[in-house]
Design brief:
120 residues, mainly alpha, 3-stranded antiparallel β-sheet, 7 helices, 3 strands
């Protein structure tokens, strides 16, 4: 029950939902997520920590950079929550705009992008 509660809590914030859905296209650096959401780095880090604690995302560190990807082992509440969110938001205008924005953000040199946020 705790896993389901954690997933529900994680999905209760629009910024966390946007970040989660942005990861559908693959792994992203935290700076790319910051750029997408337009929030302070500390705020994005807190949002990503909630998603991580719920098992919705997984992290890896490479030097000073932190990367996120979708989590949720098959059959877990987290995996079910991700699939539910995908289905519920398949035609959402904001999620479509974010997908387009992420494609543009991925074309920005990561070192330059992360330097904007003091993470290079």
């Amino acid at each position: 029950m705790r896993e389901l509660q954690a997933a529900a809590k994680a999905l209760s914030d629009p910024s966390r939902i946007r970040a989660l859905m942005a990861l559908q296209g693959g792994e992203l650096c935290v700076c790319q997520i910051i750029e997408l959401l337009g929030l302070a780095p500390s705020t994005v880090s807190k949002h990503m920590a909630v998603l991580s604690q719920a098992g919705l995302v997984e992290t890896r560190k490479e030097g000073r950079w932190v990367y996120y990807r979708l989590g949720g082992q098959s059959g877990s509440p987290a995996a079910g929550a991700i699939e539910w969110a995908r289905g519920a938001l398949a035609d959402d205008e904001q999620i479509r705009k974010d997908a387009k924005a992420i494609r543009a953000i991925k074309r920005i040199d990561k070192k330059k992008l992360c330097a904007r946020y003091g993470r290079a």
